[in-house]
Amino acid sequence: MTAKSQEEIKKEIYRYYQSQPRTQEMYTAMLTELQETFGALSPKLLSEAAEVLGIKASVLACLVKFSAHLKLEDYKYKLVVCEGGRCGKRGNLSVLQALKKELQIGKDGFSRDKQIYFTTQNCMKRCKDGPNLTINGELFSYMTVEQALDVVKSCISRHA
Question: What is the rounded distance in angstroms from the CA atom of residue 118 to the CA atom of residue 96?
């Protein structure tokens, strides 16, 4: 018995999901399977999957952005900082800027070593607890600059 190649697995995934009802849950399930096969969801892979499903690649890209477990690059940590108005009044801009500087986040949203993907979200719906951030989907609230830097360093060293 021989192991299947990534291309064979990808074709199986496409065949299966082409016959499924078009729902957000179905798209997310397909993207999850593709990511398990390829490690990350490259723009080329998203474009190809969208073509197979008959939808725009931007629909899938949006799902990736708002799904903590899906990723466009093979990075280790996804760090999301809330940019909502109430978090803004509580100092999220200082937290955001300090994290970007400390982690050396480039214009592409990645740290220099490509292990951290940094992005923002308009509102995390935890306004009374802000400023808020998530690391790989784990929520941290009431963040000051110092606390945010400590939390990020702690998470990274814990998973290293």
Answer: 10
Which among 155, 75, 86, 87 is positioned nearest to 118, based on CA atoms? 75
Residue type, 90: R
Q: Based on the fold, state whether residues 92 and 135 are members of the same structural domain.
A: yes
Do residue 61 and residue 93 come from a single domain?
A: no
Rounded CA gap, 114 and 105, in Å? 9
Structural domain for 101, as ranges: 77-159
Return the amino acid letter for 98: A
pLDDT above 80: residue 10:
yes
Type of residue numbered 24:
Q
In a domain, 32, yes or no: yes
Report the C-alpha gap between 27 and 67 in whole angstroms.
11
Which of 65, 85, 112 terminates a domain? The answer is 65
Q: In what order do the strands lie in the sheet with 116-121?
A: 116-121, 77-82, 133-135, 138-140
- Predicted TM-score (pTM) of this structure: 0.63
Which of residues 65, 86, 105 is at a domain's end?
A: 65
Mean pLDDT of 115-127: 89
